[in-house]
Amino acid sequence: MRRWLAAVFHLGIKELASVLADKVLMVFIVYCFTVSVYTVATGVKTDVSYARVAIVDADRSALSHRIRDALLPPYFARPDLIDRAQVDPAMDEGTYAFVLDLPPDLEADLRRGHQPTIQLNIDATAMTMAGLGSAYIQAIINQEVVAALNPQAVDATPVKLVTRTYFNPNLEGMWFQSVMAVIQYITILALLLVGAAVIREREHGTIEHLLVMPVGASEIAAAKIWANGLVILVATGLSLLFVVQLWLGVPIEGSILLFLAGVALYLFAVTSMAILLATVTRSMAQFSLVAIPVFLVLNMLSGATSPLESMPQVLRWLIQVSPTMHFVQLAQAILYRGAGLSAVWPQMLILSGLGAAFLAVALPQFRAMLARSQ
User: Fold this and answer.
1) Which CA distances in Å does 73 have to 1, 49, 53, 170, 250?
2) H-run or E-run covering 371
3) DSSP 206-219
4) Is the pLDDT of residue 372 over 70?
5) Which of 49, 104, 210, 263 sits between 20 and 30 A of 316, alpha carbons compared?
6) What pLDDT is recorded for position 81?
7) Range of the domain at 65
8) pTM across the whole model
9) Beta-bridge partner residues of 80
10) 255 and 196 in one domain?
């Protein structure tokens, strides 16, 4: 066992020196965990922010003024007043995300008990903004109509809904996007680095140097896992501290050390999967064509972009073998909710089991690949 550990350590040092000496690769890793995380966190918005609104006010009543004044930043920009003839050209040109058409005699018809129709034109090319923004505008109109026609009804409601938002009180999308971007880069780099390390040995002919050494497939595989995993682990910790916390100002509720322990287990699972993929491909081009769809499936079905509850039951059973799904649950529990080891140990245990299972399947394939290279 001591000889095995010594061989894994020295082979890992060789692998670590190879990774650190690759300047292009190091620049790519630094870019992913710094500039790219910042770009994803600040550039991708899932909420409504300063959406441009125009109003066709044919009523010119106190109610129409109330509705116009209620469309406030930061959700909406100050509404512009336009003519009805300008609606179609403005929507075609994408000048406004929403155009609200208030009919004549709106307030008078409401006071007479009629049900006038208000038209809301929506630019649905931005689907998230269109869906959320239309719901916000509808709620604002309903609130202002009730407040204008029957002010006593506002306070006389038998049930008062009090909303309390935990872990992200202002519903800042950047808080979510920044951490999910870090998780995505952990996954893609773990797949690419280890897979490329295996294929690079075969393409450059250096795998023959390993074959003449007194080491086996398990030592070579373990060395590549810990060396490449260590690089990603260090980059992850620095990204959370200096990019997510300091640069973006996103609060981290839980223990970063506990999260990094979960990252280490996740890297063990994903890098074992990468070795398995590298053994069934013959070139870096083939490996990329296999690894990219695997990453997309792992990411899309992880619960990071859409809730697991919205997926079909059969699919939820199948994705239990995905380490990314369990890691996302672990990361969200620690970084968002401040969970401790007592809350996340099931996910850590599952990640360890999945990593061992992937490695057990990958090692025979890896040994067969080494045998073919002799």
Assistant:
1) 65, 8, 11, 14, 22
2) helix 341-373
3) THHHHHTSS--HHH
4) no
5) 263
6) 92
7) 53-155
8) 0.79
9) 54
10) yes
